[in-house]
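[job 4417] fold queue: 2 targets
>>> target A
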Amino acid sequence: MSNWDLLKIIFILSLCQEALSIKCWVCRSDADPKCADPFDNSTVPITDCKQEPDLPHLPGVRPTMCRKIRQKVNGEWRYFRSCAYLGEPGIEGDERFCLMRTGTYNIFMEYCTCNSKDGCNSAI
């Protein structure tokens, strides 16, 4: 294999890595009220998830989706948007998927993931 062939392979692999990356909104409504619904991204930068750090409790797992968590705790709504390391894409693999949970002490949580496009966690 020539050096030229090796360079072509490296270039193609770098394009594949770029294609697998997704960009998500990353914010918390308790720190920035614009993170709540309706979402105002005027002060929130979009984050390239491939730049997110490895998590010690998930070795080798990289974020491949976006997520939005909506919580109601004691009557107060909180919103969290971030890159998702785990979760389920929609049925077709490119739409949102949501789980809802209700607990004791007036706690409600909705956890949604998506991978249809960059910034897909703005409205899910």
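>>> target B
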Amino acid sequence: MNTGVGKRIKEWIYILAVGFLLAIVIQKTAFALYIVEGSSMMPTIKNHERVFVNRIPLYFGAINRGDIVVFPNPIDDRYFVKRVIGLPGDRISISNGRVYLNGKILHEEYVDTITVGDMEEVTVKEGHVFVMGDNRHPNASWDSRSPDIGQIPISSLAGEAEFVLLPVPHSLK
């Protein structure tokens, strides 16, 4: 009788080990959860919300304007969550509270205030994206407008934020 119980225990240990390894592989290659720290993406994403991040679009080069992406902060070990405003070759400028994309006003329904501060036109480099937080209040978002952050290499993106999982689930699309 003990051999049957021992065999079942070994099977369960094997199943749990395989499940654990599979979870690690999925988290590293396909999906992940990130906790948003700060208010730079308000009102779209609030402080301490958990976002579900899909890594799969990165494998196919499927990052688009308006996508919300996660990437490592180039200064420390935190991750940032920001919106893609410009793709390679796009021209971005800010004047009189408005963001301009390729010489035309960018319509941003997700922003609740005008963008503070002007910015000379920049062209997004090949292999990079220009990102901004949705919260455009003064000093609310540290993003591509800052020389410390600048344009983000597409190769450094951790993935695309698809939806908020906690505390209240909602889509980011």
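[job 4417] complete. Note on B: The chain has a mean pLDDT of 89.
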